[in-house]
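Sequence, structure tokens reproduced for reference:
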Amino acid sequence: LLQMVFYMSISLYGAVLALSATTDLSFEASIVSLGAVCAFYCSLGGLKAVLWTDCFQAILMITCLLAIYITGISDVGGIFELFQKASSGKRLDLFEFMPDITRRYGFWACATQGILVGVSFFGTNQVEVQRLLSLSTIKRAKSTLRMSSFPVCLMYTTCCFLGLVLYGVYYNCDPILNKERTGLTKYDQIVPAYIATRFSSYPGLTGLCIAGIFSASLSTISSCLNSASTV
């Protein structure tokens, strides 16, 4: 339960960053408003409301990712140029098999983290357990668990490669080191700032992508709130 409280806090922080980047709301007001909206529809609809909103929010999340991927790769100059910049910046050293525990993104660190997170998420996480227990039979629960593993892994991989895209976009200009020009003070602000500046010329696209960030946060928070209430 304590882990879920911290997890919800981090998820809410992501949505608040996006809201602060596109509106004049203060950080505190953003936290209260988003938390209240999420708690409201969770309390009214229960698990069914959470599941249905998760479906629509997933569509917004995918739309946001696709928009950033398409424009980001175009800004960099193509996929080949993107990987060339990532390689020169040593962002593709994943298959480094040296058993160095101090290396943050080596093969063994990523593999260990992936296994531990995967076992935790699919085996003991209260959100996942609640949804599996809501199914009518064990057979359906097993098949659902197997089917959900691929899209979850795909989403995690897509979000990781999003970092490569933004690294390529800002390859020659670190937005934090140039904060006098960009106004950014934290690396957490890069995604909403890129959306707000890059998509400003496309009517509605900025709001749609910001909604995608909201969806990622609110779907997590609503699932955690609903499952935590059953503990």
Summary: The radius of gyration is 19 Å. Residues 27-76 form the longest helix (50 residues). Residues 1-230 form one domain. The chain has a mean pLDDT of 82.
